[in-house]
Amino acid sequence: MEGSKVTTWRTPRMCDDYWSEFKLCKSISNYFHHYYTYGTSPSCQQWKEDYYHCREWEKHGSTEAKEALQKSERKRVAEQRNFTPVWELRREPPRDWHLPLDQEGPQDS
């Protein structure tokens, strides 16, 4: 096996991070925020399942747990890509970026 790399899979996050996300999701402040924003209560079950899959992978090296965790993370990343940015990102700085700011004039709001 000279020259070949053997890579071991690592979880994308620490297992405690999944548990922290679950606890945050179940918090009363998140419940109110989610209900106010979306009109429904938040679904936190996936964070809990990810935590248990992560623990299962760490303790026993379960391939089922690994695949379930990978699938969940891929789904989470795909969902994040569906949101468009609020602001358009600049490709270069404004032409007058080096000039001093006009402190006396009216400001755009």
Write up what this structure looks like.
It comes from Stegastes partitus. It is found in: Synaptic cleft. Pfam families: PANTS-like (PF11326). Belongs to the UPF0545 family. This is Synaptic plasticity regulator PANTS. The structure is a single chain. This protein has four helices and no strands. With 109 residues, it is mostly helical. It has a domain at 19-77. Helix 1 (15-26) runs antiparallel to helix 3 (45-60) and helix 3 packs antiparallel against helix 4. The protein is elongated and about 65 Å long. The relative contact order is 0.09.
Short descriptors:
single chain, 109 residues, mainly alpha, 4 helices
**Mind summarizing the main beta sheet?**
none
> What would you report as the Rg, rounded to the nearest angstrom?
22 Å
Q: Helical content, roughly?
A: 40-55%
- The low-pLDDT segments are 1-6
Q: DSSP helix count? A: 4
Secondary-structure element series = HHHH
Q: What is the typical, i.e. mean, pLDDT? A: 86
How far apart, in Å, are the first and last alpha carbons? 64 Å
What is the 3D form? elongated
Strand-residue proportion: under 5%
Number of strands: 0
Subcellular location: Synaptic cleft
Family: Belongs to the UPF0545 family.
GO cellular component, one term: synaptic cleft
Protein name: Synaptic plasticity regulator PANTS
